[in-house]
Amino acid sequence: MAPRPLTRADAGLNLALAVIVSSTAPLLLLDGTLTLIAASDSFCQAFQLDPASVPGNSLSELGAGEWNIPQLISLLDATASGFAKVESYELDLTRAGRENRHLVLNAQKLEYGGDDSVRLLVAVSDVTEARISEKRKDDSLKEKAILLQELQHRVANSLQIIASVLMQSARKVQSDEMRGHLVDAHQRVMSVAALQQQLAVASTGEVELQQYFTALCNSIRASMIHDHSLLSLDVSGNKSTTSADASVSLGLIVTELVINSLKHAFPGDRKGSIKVDYQSHGPNWVLSVSDDGVGMPIDAASAKPGLGTSIIQALTRQLQAVVRIADANPGTAVYIAHSKIAAVQHARSPGVH
User: Fold this and answer.
1) What's the CA gap between 196 and 37, in Å, rounded?
2) How far is C-alpha 135 from the geometric centre of its chain's CA atoms?
3) What domains sit in the chain, N to C, each tagged with a CATH number?
4) For residue 324, what are the CA distances in angstroms to 18, 302, 332?
């Protein structure tokens, strides 16, 4: 009797078997009853199986029965019937006397032209080490977050101690000039403490500036404005965000400008208001701090820049922005503006500000 001619389906199956057995990825080929037709050598090596013992066994009988997982069997049955497709299905493979493995499975139904036989190709990826690495990374990040929080508490406590020492020293000195310097130093330490407090609760990624400036100004208001019926401090702006690094510089600029207004714009018991505003449009933004106080002195242009002015200028250069001071009629307005044009000019002429 002459042998049956090799059909197209037979050729397809033989090719599939050759590809699967030689594959470097762990693969299984099953029929419609979830009986194993073939397994790649890499699968057998990964799960300590004898390649000769695999064909003809059902998936639930593979090895010591560790693959008899009801949910997996149900999913593969549904895939064989054409009602489902297994994609990135994760499971824990438990084997007696061996370490548990975390696996990711993908399965699909194969087509062999006119052949009605059902074939399932199952790909298995062992992600145990990757999951362990991810867990270690997560644990490390949590540990670092706890250490950072502890550091922030220590920094906050240290700033409070420094501010207290400065104020005590200011009360003891006889020189008015020295007392003024110590009070200035105390106010700056308090403003940095307020800034640090807000950054401690801010995200390490993008910081929403209106919310950030509002919290910052609330801290300044509470520590430096003794009569809220005389002076108000308000924040406005759009829903702008920036990086945590940039927010540090912007926060320091705001505290310096607000302190400057509190010190000079409202002598005596003069009433007034201070407004902080931040607006951005794409990469361009403008930060403004304005007051309706007594305005700038006539000889302000010839006056020697103080420490606050130097700090603002340095931070503005760092942000590749420019400073503009205007008469607010009444009061003074300071604008810190960043634009693409300004950034290009700054890059060409670093000394211009």
Assistant:
1) 65
2) 18
3) 8-126 (3.30.450.20), 132-348 (3.30.565.10)
4) 76, 16, 11
Take residue 229 and report the two structure tokens written for it.
């019926």
The residue written with tokens 């700054």 in the block is: 346
Strands 27-31 and 36-39: antiparallel
Q: What is the pLDDT, as a whole number, of residue 33?
A: 92
- Asked which of 59-63, 89-93, 216-220, 314-318 is least confident by mean pLDDT, the reply is 216-220
Strand, coil or helix: what is 62? coil
What CA–CA distances, in Å, run from 88 to 54, 104, 124, 127? 24, 5, 9, 11
For residue 254, the SS3 value is helix
- 243 phi and psi, to 5 degrees? -70, 160
Sheet bearing 27-31, strands edge to edge: 36-39, 27-31, 119-126, 101-110, 86-93
The Cα 202–Cα 148 span in angstroms is 13
Nearest residue to 29 via CA among 68, 62, 71? 62
Secondary structure (DSSP) of 276-296: EEEEEETTEEEEEEEE-SS--
Nearest to 275 by CA among 256, 289, 296: 289
Predicted TM-score of the model (pTM): 0.51
